[in-house]
Design goal:
The complex is a heterodimer of chains A (646) and B (269). In chain A, the strands form seven sheets. In chain A, strands 5-2-1-9-17 form a five-stranded parallel β-sheet, with helices on both faces. Chain A is an alpha/beta fold and 646 residues long. Chain B has two domains: 122 residues, Ubiquitin-like (UB roll) (Roll), CATH 3.10.20.30; 140 residues, Fumarate Reductase Iron-sulfur Protein, Chain B, domain 2. Helix content of chain B is 34%, strand content 13%. The chains are: A alpha/beta (646), B alpha+beta (269). At the A-B interface, helix 2, helix 4, helix 5, helix 10 and helix 11 of A face helix 1, helix 2, helix 3 and helix 4 of B.
């Protein structure tokens, strides 16, 4: 592929418009070429993934008149993992009259991302945030309301204004079902073709442009080729590289990774988010971790005993013997410090020997004071379903005893590099939502993932895709062309190779071992020696996988173990890129804590002089080191400062 | 409290599983017996199946296929009939949130897929629920488009109505209502969406067409009718009330009165 020959730094044009930041998106929309209404039906978009980004993009493109084919790996588009988001969605509506504005949401997001996001993108995100709420209400999303009928807001995840809209503890579910309903409307109208239980295994590149995909039909095992005029990857994040995460079991990096191998640069893969409020691990059989919305930190207080190995039940520990460590360390933000800060502080207490519970890898999240103040009815109204879920999993009643929580991998800020149009370095390949790297920098603020997914799908890609269709000469393409045949053969060969190994170890055992290595050595805190060790280990594990994995049965029917094997094989390749990225970034920033780079009081020390860039990695062939391209980040509006929540 | 959370080897249970195995839609199925010796009470039911599958793979057998994804009770993928009950013995609980502490050492547990003509078996415990998507495509939406919305607070919705709409909208589309119903009726699923949107001002302009289209689509998929057993509500992991079915019946009757031959769902596209 020609991309492998291009010199480093040559291909990262972010295409951000200039001028005052509040006018950039307007100007850009005007500059984008339009597709004549009568011609729209001639263009065909292939949308992979049906979470918030994919479903909203597919629906919006269909509304504009484009032909759309949409793919999902689940049995229904409604099951995409956006559905599990609990807490809420941000917008700069300023309905509570508490001082919010587009500029403040922009400012908070750039700062919260620890100055590793692109200002132009973040400003646009804040601008369209208000339209998202309007659109979702119009779709019938039953947001929480006040008695007068207006929308309710709450403060969330470290914000000092109440800008978060929510639907009980099921905001992601309700937003996804709204986007899904818009999508299904156009499945009904015939503008969208829906292909469920399909896994994308390759992007097909014709004359240097993404023109199709190869999928495996997960029920029949058949390989299917689809040709179109653009490919939109809306395939979520790669948190399952850690095996244990809050992601759904099917979340994977395969679509993004295969696109990467076809020329899309992968940006900031080491930027993963660790969420502070998850239910701790209970045993070796653990298959996933469950998030408790961080909205719980609005009313719950986080503490550990002041005394090491304190065996008393929490209720027997008087206040003066409790260390409310977030309130102690960060008096002005207290329990509402951003996720990365809260996570690191909890890990610090546990590492120092103050953890609670059987494993000592947990801290308390205590509702005692809120229950006394507001009563259990008020707490149930706000958090009922979350507390019920906690009680089910742990067999403990959080109304009686404090919850135990521990940080877990939750979201990945890294993803395929995209320009201002959300187009990757592979022309015609657009990347939306968590799958791209665009808006959250090194740390995502709470209630911002839903905002970004819907912003990309409803309000950004419908414009920028028109620029691609109208601005490029796209020759007619057919799924019978040689490029498609070759892509299918490559995908088929890879699957057959997995089936042919016939070794002794299960896919899951490889995945668990990979996850453990990544969590220990490339997780919340990393250092150079650990990363070197991780790299050696991952390489050895990958080699063993291809010699010793055992996948039963065949590929000619539903074979969930085979699906998992393909995803783990890709994670084993991707993990090495993640480690390389973590190794080169010797600064601490956001969710990425580099032990060599900390302040005297143990806070993360960012290094703007050397690391104010997005790291975009170019695949240069299997077995070859990936090439690092740097997109410099400049801050014209939000002056970089060391974050302080004290 | 940590005593309650912890367990030791003495807590481990022996469980006998009788699991429905079926290689494909056109193959005959059968119950297979598996014995597990070391089940932890803190495991979820699906984690127990994971342990079984790891063993089957190690022994060179085909693991048991079952749908699952989020494992936190919200995606609606998991779908097992356990000892005759959709989602198992606990109220308001999906299978993925059912824990083995519910069972005792020596128990025998029967595991089957959803049973309904409209949900054909794909393999083992996996069924095809795409009928639900087709019902949604027939009318389970508000026909608006990106860019058309007015300011969100221009639409006032009193809190009680918003709460009732949310109660109905909490449906996860798992299909337990169908699996639990002696008639394999999808009334609760359809009613939840009709009731959610009928109670909001945004859904009002299309309420007649929506009720008619969704009910017609439901009938066309081969689901049975409702004869008031209320098994659906008992099985529903999200506590969707049969009151929604009454509301849908009212919506349907009301719509039937106004039905005109030209009003088809296709116009909504």
């Amino acid at each position: 592929m020609s991309a492998a020959l291009s010199p480093p730094t040559a291909r990262l044009d972010a295409k951000c418009p200039g001028g005052p930041i509040e006018e950039r998106w307007d100007k850009h929309r005007f500059d984008l070429k339009l597709v004549n209404p009568a011609n729209k039906r001639k263009f065909h978009a292939l949308v992979v993934g049906t979470g918030l980004a994919g479903a909203s993009a597919a629906a919006s493109l269909a509304e504009l008149g484009y032909r759309v084919t949409v793919f999902c790996i689940q049995d229904s588009p409604r099951r995409a993992h956006s559905i599990a988001a609990q807490g809420g969605i941000n917008a700069a509506k300023n309905y509570p009259n508490d001082g919010d504005s587009i500029y403040r949401l922009f400012y908070d997001t750039v700062k919260g991302g620890d100055f590793r996001a692109r200002e132009s993108n973040v400003y646009r995100l804040a601008q369209v945030s208000n339209h998202i709420i309007d659109q979702c209400v119009a779709l019938g999303v039953p947001f929480a309301r006040e008695y007068g009928g207006v929308l309710a807001n709450r403060s969330f995840g470290g914000a000092q204004v109440s800008r978060t809209f929510y639907a009980r503890g099921q905001t992601g579910q309700q937003l996804l079902l709204g986007a899904y309903s818009a999508l299904m409307r156009h499945v009904g109208s015939g503008r969208v073709q829906l292909c469920a239980r399909r896994e994308m295994l390759d992007v097909v590149v014709v004359d240097g442009v993404a023109r199709g995909v190869v999928c495996r039909n997960l029920v029949s095992g058949a390989y299917e080729r689809y040709a179109g005029d653009a490919v939109l990857l809306c395939t979520g994040g790669y948190g399952n590289v850690f095996y244990l995460s809050t992601n759904a079991k099917a979340c994977n990096v395969t679509a993004a990774w295969r696109a990467h191998k076809r020329g899309a640069f992968f940006a900031n893969p080491c930027f993963t988010q660790i969420h502070p409020t998850c239910i701790p691990v209970s045993g070796a059989y653990q298959s996933k971790l469950t998030l408790m919305s961080e909205s719980l930190r609005n009313d719950g207080r986080v503490w550990v005993p002041k005394q090491k190995d304190d065996a008393r039940p929490p209720s027997a520990i008087p206040d003066e013997e409790r260390d409310y460590f977030l309130e102690r360390r960060y008096p002005s933000f207290g329990n509402l410090v951003p996720r990365d800060v809260a996570s690191r502080a909890a890990k610090e207490r546990c590492d120092a020997g103050y953890g609670v519970g059987r494993t000592k890898l947990a801290v308390y999240l205590d509702f005692r004071d809120a229950l006394r103040r507001d009563g259990s009815a008020a707490i149930r109204e706000k958090y009922g379903n979350l507390l019920q879920m906690y009680a089910k999993i742990t067999a403990e009643d959080p109304y009686q005893v404090p919850m135990r929580i521990y940080p877990a991998v939750h979201y990945t800020m890294g993803g395929l590099w995209v320009d201002y149009n959300l187009e990757s370095t592979l022309p015609g390949l657009f990347v939306l939502g968590e799958a791209n790297f665009s808006d959250h920098g090194a740390n995502r603020l709470g209630a911002s993932a839903l905002m970004q997914g819907l912003a990309d799908g409803f309000f950004i890609v419908p414009y920028t895709l028109g620029g691609h269709f109208a601005g490029r000469k796209l020759a007619p393409v057919s799924a019978d062309q040689k490029e498609f045949v070759a892509s299918e053969q490559a995908a088929r060969a890879r699957t057959e190779r997995i089936l042919a190994v016939g070794g002794a170890r299960t896919v899951d055992s490889f995945h668990r071992e990979l996850g453990r290595t990544m969590w220990d050595l490339c997780g919340m805190a990393r250092n150079a020696a650990g990363l070197a060790k991780a790299k050696t280990h991952v390489r050895a594990l990958r080699a063993e996988f291809w010699e010793n994995v055992r996948v039963p049965a065949d590929g000619a029917r539903l074979n969930q173990n085979l699906e998992h094997a393909g995803r783990v094989a890709d994670f084993l390749e991707f993990a090495e890129l993640m480690i390389d990225d973590a190794t080169q970034r010797t600064e601490s920033c956001g969710g990425h804590f580099r032990e060599e780079s900390q302040t005297d009081d143990g806070e993360a020390r960012r290094d703007d002089e050397h690391f104010s860039f997005a790291a975009a990695w170019e695949h240069r062939g299997d077995g070859q080191p990936a090439a690092l391209h740097k997109e410099p980040l400049t801050f014209e509006y939000v002056k970089p400062s060391q974050r302080s929540y004290q | 409290m940590s005593a309650a959370a912890g367990h030791d080897a003495a807590d481990s249970m022996r469980i006998t599983l009788k699991v429905w195995r079926q290689e494909g839609p056109d193959r005959r199925g059968r119950m297979e017996t598996y014995r597990l010796a070391d089940v932890s009470p803190d495991m979820s039911f699906l984690e127990m199946l994971d342990v079984l599958n790891e063993r089957l793979i190690a022994e060179g057998d085909d693991p048991v296929a079952f749908d699952h994804d989020c494992r936190e009770g919200i995606c609606g993928a998991c779908s097992l009939v356990i000892d005759g009950q959709a989602h198992g013995p606990e109220a308001l609980t999906t299978v993925c949130q059912l824990h083995m502490r519910r069972y005792s050492d020596g128990d025998t547990i029967h595991v089957e897929p959803w049973r309904a003509n409209a949900f054909p078996v794909v393999k083992d415990l996996v069924v095809d629920r795409s009928a639900f998507d087709r019902i949604m495509a027939a009318g389970g939406f508000v026909a608006t488009h990106a860019g058309a919305a007015q300011d969100a607070n221009a639409i006032l919705v009193p809190k009680p109505e918003a709460d009732r709409a949310m109660d109905a909208a909490a449906c996860i589309g798992c299909g337990a209502c169908v699996a639990a119903c002696p008639n394999a009726s999808a009334m609760l699923f359809v009613a939840a969406k009709v009731a959610h949107l009928a109670q909001l001002p945004q859904g009002a302009p299309e309420r007649e067409r929506r009720a008619l289209s969704m009910v017609h689509a439901m009938d066309a998929e081969g689901f049975g009718n409702c004869t008031n057993h209320f098994e659906c509500m008992a099985a529903c992991p999200k506590g969707i009330s049969v009151e929604n079915i009454a509301r849908m019946n009212r919506e349907f009757l009301r719509a039937a009165l106004f039905e005109r031959p030209t009003a088809t769902a296709a116009e909504g596209g």
